[in-house]
Amino acid sequence: MKRQKKCYLYTRVSTAMQVDGYSLDAQKDKLRKYAEYQDMTIVSEFSDAGFSGKNIKGRPEFLRMMEKIESGKDNVDFVLVFKLSRFGRNAADVLNSLQTMQDYGVNLICVEDGIDSSKDAGKLMISVLSAVAEIERENIRTQTMAGREQKAKEGKWNGGFAPYGYKLEKGQLLIADGEAEIIRIIYDRYIHTGDGIGAVAKYLNHNGYTKKLRQNNTISGFSESFVKAVLDNPVYMGKIAYGRRRTEKKAGTRNEMHVVEQSEYPIYEGCHEAIISESDWQLAQQKRKINAYKREKVHDIDHAHILSGILKCPCCGKSLYGNIAKAHSKDRYTRYYYYCKNTLGETGHQCSFRFNIEQKEMNRITAAVISAMVRDERFRDAIKKKIGTAVDISEMEERIEALQEQLRQVQGTKTRLEHQMDNLAVTDSYYEQKIADLQRRYDEQYHKTEMIEAQIEEWHSRMLNIQQEKISADNIYQLLLAFDKLYDTFSEVEQRDFMRAFIERIDIYPEKPKNGCWIRNIVFNFPMPVHGREMKTLPLESQSTVETVALLAKEGPA
Predict the structure, then answer these.
(1) Which CA distances in Å does 142 have to 204, 249, 372, 424, 438?
(2) Which of 53, 160, 329, 492 is the S-S candidate for 304 at Cβ 3.0 to 4.6 Å?
């Protein structure tokens, strides 16, 4: 008696919502009727609901079916699928899986396509159709990207959330007045001061500026990554960039993709209004390149302008920088000063501060202020208690985890939309409208992904900065306890590094007071226990404090 053939049924849909004829129930009904007609015994049924056909790794039921075939326990002859596209869309995966099945004596039948791999023409047909399916998939992606580039060439926004500083109305970028001012400040400080990216972020955070929260953003502060993204985005000079980030296959994988930053990309004239001028954007790019290189000193290699960038001009608020008066033939003595660059008019800012403050004098006064602080027993006791205290970052870790969960949800949505586009029949009378709608939603997921990844980076950066600030603070606190013993033994470079790690800014008077103390107040990088309370700003207005400082300035640190 002839043995009745055995089979497995395999069905798959990409989403729960499928057109008639492709639903799981419709596929199963068709396959069961075919098995009955061919007098086959159905041993097991396997169904993957909501999984893509682009690779087999993400389809648990398919993998379970392949394991059972390899075990040989059921001794099946065929796997029945509705169409080849239900078996898989990646040509290599389809052929590899089919080869594995045939190694165990199992063939594939695609009922709707009329393909039977046990027949001579069957495997060839499977090879051709699976390759065509993959080519179609790539063509859709290529056409989509071409459409996006054309939109950029026309100066139009390519969808997704508007960049900070703009709002989106009817697909058009419009300036958001409440946010644009932050963009202008970032460019102004980066171009016209000595501030780097980190210093610009610190300036915004320490001067009462807050970031408007939108698109589930929970960080009102400014990070270095945010400032960097603003400075590098040509959208703010009225341009549209295309291809700054590209989705590429990961090396060594067949189907895994990742987003890669591009060093070069085309920039087109935008339809939107610029927030900053093109010349300012170019100046920012020049500084970004210059900051990648260290300048070589041409004068005394052992000399460092200790307070350069920390001292602030009392007229325009910009930083004071080091200046050198070359040695005269009379005394052969080189003099060093702090001065305001804006007096030269090079930056276009007007400033009436005309003093060149002798560095030796200002350095001695500043060291005297710190020495006066550390000689206070209350200060020393409070500092000792602060060293080694733990930093609580649990809330930040929870926020990062919540954002990572959002990212997983967005990636899941992107995958589902991808599946819907894969399975949308070109014969559908509304195909063009549906594919356009799906593509719009698909693009939005990329922008959401970018936004969430930026937030995660910001929180990681903020957490790392706090941890590093804690470590730095501990080091500074330790040094402060031994300040009078150590400071004079430091080289000028070490003294400069210490001051920058300890002090954020020093505000001075527009003219030298009679008591000789230029300093109006000092703003620290960390809260300091001064006069029995925590403070970041130390005003030097107390007569007793000034007298102490003046005395110490004459003596120098002990």
Answers:
(1) 42, 14, 69, 17, 15
(2) 492
The residues of the chain scoring below 50 in pLDDT are 16-21, 253-254, 294-298, 343-349, 543, 546, 548-553, 557-558
Of 528, 131, 166, 136, the C-alpha closest to 369 is 528
Say yes or no: 107 and 38 in one domain.
Answer: yes
Examine the domain organization and report whether 197 and 212 are in the same domain: yes
Quick one: pLDDT at residue 65?
Answer: 93
Residue 162: what residue type? Answer: A
Please give the helix or strand (H or E) that residue 259 lies within, else none.
strand 257-261
> For the chain, what is the domain count?
4
Q: 301-342: per-residue pLDDT in tens?
A: 568 888 988 899 888 888 888 888 765 556 667 788 888 876
Residue 476 lies in a domain: no
Q: Give the C-alpha separation, 471 to 482, whole Å.
A: 17
Q: Are strands 519-530 and 503-508 parallel, antiparallel or unpaired?
A: antiparallel
Domain assignment present for residue 317? The answer is yes
Cα–chain-centroid distance for residue 452?
8
CA distances from 453 to 221, 274, 382, 450 (A): 16, 26, 40, 5
DSSP SS3 for 496: helix
Each residue's pLDDT tens digit, 88-109: 766 667 777 888 888 899 999 9
Query: Is residue 233 domain-resident?
Result: yes
Residue owning tokens 């109305």: 169
Residues recognised as catalytic: 14
For residue 68 the two structure tokens come to 């059972």
Q: Which two tokens stand for residue 463?
A: 């957490």
- List the domain range (segments joined by +) for residue 399: 394-463
